[in-house]
Every structure is written in structure tokens, then in C-alpha cells.
Design brief:
Number of strands: 9
Order of helices and strands: EEHEHEHHEHEEEHHE
Distance between the termini: 16 Å
Oligomer: single chain
Structural class: alpha/beta
Radius of gyration: 18 Å
Length: about 210
């Protein structure tokens, strides 16, 4: 599989609008239109990049609730598309964007239960409810339990009902896959995103997002 190359204008790298949107420092200098797909790369990478660019061109302050779902292995370049997409929307379209790492968000919410922390769960979640475009990175990375399912449901259902766009990345496959262990006849089922966030929320994502 090929890699994605990024050309960044030296003059604009430090003034990227990613800080306000909480985009990780590593990706703040990435420019969506500067990405190139090397010859021989998996076709899905090019398709995903094209979709991200079209999404940014077509979105307005009324995003109508449609977002994007990027799936792929941790080695794939696809998880890098949402960060520069968010930056472009913030910079060029004046969209209120927010980047959230899924695991970090859950950890911060759990920490809010500490009596010494002066912030409630709802206060931590309010930015993810209010952002016109939310990037939810690495969805499904946390091992599932009832509390995780409820938290995911609260975020996704709130954004769905308010018609707000959500861009999601995940390394967990959305459909069931089987593989053989050590060449034996016994087959094992690979975990799916439905296992991690619940089949009901996976179905909701199908309504909310264009898959890639």
C-alpha cells in the first residue's frame, strides 16, 4: 500500500486554526488539498480523500447532519483525513469544529466522577454536543461495557437529533469477518464496531455518515 504525501506551505504551518478546534499538534500543519496518493496505493485511500474534499466543499453552516465514517487499519492513511478536513472547515467556512479523541474523552468523563474535579460529565460533553462538525477519532478503541455504550449513544443521538455533522474514524471493521487460526479448521470471528458501540448505534451511524 502506498503512502500519502503532504506538502505544507512554510508560511502557514504555525498559524493553522487547529488549536481552537483541539486538533492534535501533529496534524495542525496538514493541508487537505496538499495530500497526494502515491502510485500503487490502495484505491480506497484515494476515494476517501476525494470524499473528504467534496464534503468540505459542500458543507455549509447548516450541515444537515450528514457526516463521514472512515474505516481502516492503523497503518492506513485514511485516519489522517479528518483533522485537515476540520481545519479547512474552520478556516474557510467559519464552521465551529471540534476534534475529540474517543479514548481521551471517555477517560476525562470517568475522571469527572472524582469529587476533587470541578467539572461534571455533562459539562465535558457539551462541546461535543454543540460543535457544528465533530471529529470523533478512533471510535470503538475502548473495550465495551454498558457505560461506554450509554456514552456513545448520548453523543451520537444528540448530534443526530440536532442535525449536526460528525466525522468518525475507526480501525474496527463495521461488518463481520472470519479468520482461521494457525491454519486450523476452527474459525474465529473478528470483533466488529457493532460489538464495541452496540448494533443500534452502528445502525445510527449508517444514517449519519457516508462510509469509507
Amino acid at each position: 500500500m502506498g503512502l500519502a504525501a503532504v506538502r505544507v506551505p512554510a508560511d502557514g504551518a504555525r498559524r493553522a486554526p487547529g488549536a481552537a478546534a483541539h486538533i492534535p499538534l501533529r496534524y495542525r500543519s496538514c493541508i487537505l488539498d496538499a495530500f497526494e496518493i502515491y502510485h500503487g496505493a490502495d484505491r480506497s485511500l484515494g476515494d476517501a480523500l476525494l470524499t473528504a474534499r467534496r464534503f468540505c466543499r459542500g458543507v455549509s453552516r447548516d450541515t444537515a447532519g450528514k457526516g463521514l465514517l472512515f474505516t481502516g487499519s492503523s497503518a492506513s492513511a485514511k485516519p489522517t483525513w479528518p483533522s485537515p478536513s476540520c481545519q479547512r472547515l474552520v478556516r474557510e467556512r467559519g464552521v465551529k469544529g471540534l476534534f475529540c479523541d474517543y479514548r481521551e474523552l471517555l477517560k476525562n468523563i470517568q475522571n469527572s466522577y472524582n469529587p476533587q474535579v470541578n467539572m461534571t460529565e455533562l459539562e465535558l460533553l457539551k462541546p461535543s454536543f454543540a460543535a457544528e462538525v465533530l471529529v470523533l477519532d478512533d471510535l470503538g478503541a475502548q473495550k465495551p461495557n454498558e457505560w461506554v455504550w450509554d456514552t456513545v449513544a448520548l453523543i451520537l443521538n444528540t448530534r443526530y437529533n440536532d442535525k449536526l455533522s460528525t466525522i468518525i474514524t475507526t480501525t474496527i471493521p463495521t461488518c463481520c469477518r472470519w479468520w482461521r487460526q494457525d491454519g486450523c479448521r476452527t474459525r474465529r470471528r473478528e470483533p466488529t464496531l457493532g460489538d464495541r458501540i452496540g448494533d443500534r448505534m452502528l445502525s445510527r451511524l449508517a444514517e449519519m455518515c457516508i462510509p469509507h
